[in-house]
Amino acid sequence: MTSCNGESHEFTLTESYTGYEWNDFSSGDALTVSQTGKVYVKVWDEFGCSGSDTAMFTVGTSPVVDLGPDTVICGDAAYVLDAGDFASYLWSTGATTASINVSTAGNYTVTSSNACGSDTVVVNVTVTTHHLFL
Fold first, then answer.
1. Cα dist. 78→9, 73, 100 in Å?
2. pTM, whole model, 2 decimals?
3. 3.90.1150.10, 2.60.40.10, 3.90.660.10, 3.40.720.10: which CATH number matches 71-128?
4. Mean pLDDT of the chain
């Protein structure tokens, strides 16, 4: 289970039991969590039969992509635009990798996504050529 941007989540069971014991030692029929970690519950019924279950809870954040400032590259040099570590990528070039090499002028856009959403950023690349006259 993943919660995004600090949102809490309430774990509840689909059936009612006589007793409950959660990993925080509470005894209610539900547990609200807001921090990454393992959630554990032990239950028992009026006959003394018991069961337990465990789930992993993760707090995630929305992606924030930073390609750096607009960039000037010289001549035939290639420049690497790296979007960072996310679940998926879609560049304005059609590439779906974390980074791309650019060597032509233009605006490059990437949308990066994770379980909590997506972010789009644009960087302008300018290519200059220096002509030396002797």
1. 46, 7, 10
2. 0.58
3. 2.60.40.10
4. 86
